[in-house]
Amino acid sequence: MKIEESSTRRKNKILVVEDHSHIRQILALRLKELGYEVFEAETGLDAFRQARTTLPDLVLMDLHMPVVGGDEVMAWLKTDLLTRHIPVIVATALLFGPAVDRAIAAGAAEVIHKPFNFDALNTILQRHLPDPSVV
């Protein structure tokens, strides 16, 4: 890559939403290593606020969180004018169930199942992120 190319490349921004701090930190670290700009949120309410503030290119969100679940946050994000265009990847240990159904109905771009492989996760993210070479 030429120097002038790297200066015009922008990093895709990902908001990681996970209530377990160790999982969130590992995800954030691995995503940063893959070249993404990463923001973190611990709660659903914080995720909604962060998404409206940072306008990430993608949200990677745990489905089960205390107080406000991922399916509710998904509905908020998809009905808000500032955030409705942002793809949301929902991560869950569940294979199916009402919360998964609600997340899909609310507009989840994809549902991935935990535990996941980081190479596979990166492939999924790339499928939903804009081309970073376009400024």
Short key terms for the protein model shown above:
5-stranded parallel beta sheet; 6 helices; 135 residues; 44% helix; single chain; alpha/beta
Structural class label: alpha/beta
* Rg value: 15 Å
Strand order of the largest sheet: 2-1-3-4-5
- In terms of per-residue confidence, which ranges show pLDDT below 50 for 5 or more consecutive residues? 1-6
- Overall morphology: globular
**CATH homology group:** Response regulator
What is the count of structural domains? 1
CATH architecture: 3-Layer(aba) Sandwich
Model description:
The protein has a single domain, classed as Response regulator (Rossmann fold), CATH 3.40.50.2300. It has six helices and five strands. Residues 1-6 have low confidence and may be disordered. 44% of the residues lie in helices and 18% in strands. It is globular, with a radius of gyration of 15 Å. The longest helix has 13 residues, at 21-33. It has helices spanning 3-8, 21-33, 44-54, 70-79, 98-106, 118-128; strands at 13-17, 37-41, 58-62, 88-92, 110-113. With 135 residues, it is α/β, with parallel strands linked by helices. Helix 3 runs parallel beside helix 4 and helix 4 (70-79) runs parallel beside helix 5 (98-106). A five-stranded parallel sheet has the order 2-1-3-4-5, with helices on both faces.
